[in-house]
């Protein structure tokens, strides 16, 4: 699922993402729009409750606030979850299932109200893909 417009807001090829207080500002290269936005029910995401999009590291440019980003890790400590140390908003994370991939907070995209996305797919974070590597059929 590739979404090029969310509500009244077209997703730009280079779209700005910011935390709530504006300390952290990033630019994401999203030539295909927001691909497969989803929620996740792992022990962390169920509390954070963010809608996440997917991109890759070269597609992320931190414009300001890099020194104010705080890293949170847990469990296997492969995934790297970043949030603004001033306002506490999650901006992006490096994935555990594929460290070449990054997730980002769709609701932090400029002009986007995630309510306009309607019902979304849930990722099965309880049975994480990295815990099922022995069963390639999944
Ligand atoms: Zn902030």
Main beta-sheet strand count, sense and barrel state = 5 strands, antiparallel
Order of helical and strand elements: EEEEEEEHEEEEEEE
Give a count of the beta strands, DSSP E runs of length 2 or more.
Answer: 14
Shape summary: globular
Alpha carbon gap, first and last residue: 19 Å
- Number of helices, counting only DSSP H or I runs of 4 residues or more: 1
Q: What are the distinct ligands in this entry? A: zinc ion
**What is the radius of gyration computed over CA atoms, rounded to a whole number of angstroms?**
15 Å
Beta-strand content estimate: 35-45%
CATH architecture: Beta Complex
Name the helicity range.
under 10%
Count of folded domains: 1
Global structural class: mainly beta
**Quick one: CATH class?**
Mainly Beta
If you average the pLDDT, what whole number results? 90
CATH fold annotation: Metal Binding Protein, Guanine Nucleotide Exchange Factor, Chain A
Please list the strands of the largest sheet in the order they lie side by side: 8-13-12-11-10
What does this 3D model show about the protein?
This protein is mainly β and 138 residues long. It is 3% helix and 38% strand. The protein has a single domain, classed as Metal Binding Protein, Guanine Nucleotide Exchange Factor, Chain A (Beta Complex). The protein is built from one helix and 14 strands; from the N terminus they run βββββββαβββββββ. The strands form five sheets. Strands 8-13-12-11-10 form a five-stranded antiparallel sheet, with no helix packed on it. Strands 4-5-9 form a three-stranded antiparallel sheet, with no helix packed on it. The C terminus is likely disordered. The chain binds zinc ion.
